[in-house]
Amino acid sequence: MHDSAHDSHSFKLDLSPEQMLKVIFEYTAKIAIEKKLESVLILMANMGREMVVADRCTVWLIDAAHAELFTVVAHGIKEIRIPYGSGLVGAAISSGLPIFIDDAYEDARHNPESDKKTGYRTKSIMTIPFRNNQGEVMGAYQAINKLTQAQTFSTQDMEYLTLAASYSGKSLESIMLHQEIIETQKEIILAMGKIGEGRSKETGNHVKRVAQYSYILAIGLGMSEWEAEMLRSASPMHDIGKVAIPDSVLNKPGKLTEEEFEQMKQHADIGYEFLRNSKRQLLQAAAIVAWQHHEKWDGSGYPRGLMGEDIHLYGRITALADVFDALGSSRVYKPAWKLDRILELIEAERGRHFDPMVVDVFFKELPSILEVRDREADIPEME
Ligand code: C2E
Ligand code: SIN
Ligand code: SIN
Ligand code: FE
Ligand code: FE
Fold it and tell me: How far apart are CA 298 and CA 79, in angstroms?
């Protein structure tokens, strides 16, 4: 069978020690500053591929909760998942030992199905498990098709890939831990937001929608992806101070008296007091949002009557996101408004309640905002 990739003129050479060092330095520098798990998996796979001069290289991780192995391929949006023990990777991971194969088609553990689909010819394979800081196997490197004239992987290759693998185990573990903490933080925040929401019997997905609207507005206003993400995570807490408002006021079916409304207005200061002492950036953002989401551009809002750009941009963004959603939802004291009427109010309040710049972005981004509104619509409760 003729395979142009293996014509003699296209064979590559193994790396010289200098080239090897260069590859290692370049990739470890990139990996050290990368925080996204997918990006690190791809960088590590590319590092492995260059080190052992393979055509392809994949880093596999164990997903213990689902008894699966998964990986991400370069530029792939999608993860690939296989059952825990399956294939050569599965064999290497369950035994904890490296596997070398000179021709995959002569080994029963190799699954030739994907080659059949893609027309790719897998020949030599080297699979090396790697361990976390506790010494437990947490994944494996898999290099495919050696591109040198030998066409098979050597013990030297194994040593190099083992080196990359030992580094991977430690980096990946700290990144996975970091992600776990971030995800936990987000869930706690969402849960806290829902407490504020739940007490006041507000409709189910209010805090989630406000989060998404805030994100869309933030990006539209030119905020960095990182900061917009932070605002998205922080904004569900805007009404956390409502937990301290008595039920009789919070869930009063009709209009509030002046005195009751004064009481209600305290939720902004109360929320701020809950959150202000945290050093965590995310909670500081949440404190600003809780404090300032009822300030108005013209200075007529509360609790401090701030005006214009004295109101933090987070406050100006969540003010619009919150009111847009509150108007479109039914409350104990009012039915949901029709969209036309809501949009009219927002236009009329441009430069009064709302920052004109935020209103302009709102109308520009209206299609994606309405998409969120539909996607996260409240499902009426059973009974
Ligand atoms: P909420 O119901 O989530 O409303 C959030 C904000 O959306 C309100 O802030 C207001 O700016 C806007 N909004 C909501 N409904 C209407 C409306 O029918 N017309 C207009 N023009 N704007 C509306 P606001 O006014 O500072 O109220 C803060 C919170 O106080 C409200 O959150 C709600 O929990 C409570 N609240 C306000 N008015 C009443 C009331 O008459 N009865 C009861 N039970 N609660 C009220
Ligand atoms: C978050 O988890 O970032 C907030 C919730 C959401 O965006 O829906
Ligand atoms: C909300 O819509 O839950 C917010 C009402 C408020 O911001 O007080
Ligand atoms: Fe509020
Ligand atoms: Fe709200």
Answer: 49
CA–CA separation, 130 vs 115, rounded Å?
A: 26
List, for residues 153-179, the tens digit of each pLDDT value: 999 999 998 888 887 777 788 888 777
Could you tell me the two tokens for 213? Answer: 């609207």
Residue nearest to atom 1 of ligand 2 (CA): 233
The residue extents of the domains of the chain are 2-171, 200-375
Residue 273 CA to ligand 5 centre (angstroms):
17
User: For residue 282, what pLDDT is reported?
Assistant: 85
Distance 290 CA to ligand 4 centre (A): 7
At the topology level, CATH places domain 2-171 in Beta-Lactamase (3.30.450)
- Residue 163 to residue 138: CA distance in whole angstroms: 15
Q: Tell me the whole-structure pTM to 2 decimals.
A: 0.63
Beta-strand (E) ranges in the chain?
54-63, 68-72, 79-83, 99-101, 125-131, 137-146
- Closest-lying ligand 3 atom to the alpha carbon of residue 294: 7
Rounded distance between C-alpha atoms, residue 183 and residue 232, angstroms = 13
Q: Which two tokens stand for residue 28?
A: 């470890």
Residue of 352, 353, 355, 351 whose CA lies nearest to 313: 355
- Cβ pair 144, 124 in contact under 8 A: yes
Examine the residue annotation and report whether 242 is marked as an active-site residue of this protein: yes
Q: How far is CA 302 from CA 264, 299, 307, 309, in A?
A: 11, 8, 10, 15
Contact of 132 with 143, CB cutoff 8 Å: no
| Distance of CA 182 from the midpoint of ligand 4 (Å) | 25
Q: Give pLDDT, residue 204.
A: 63
Q: Which of 16-20, 119-123, 163-167, 288-292 has the highest mean pLDDT?
A: 288-292
Cα end-to-end span (Å), the chain: 68
> Which protein residue's CA is at the shortest distance from atom 5 of ligand 2?
208
What is the phi/psi pair of residue 265, to 5°?
A: -60, -20
Asked: is 200-375 a CATH 1.10.3210.10 domain? The reply is yes
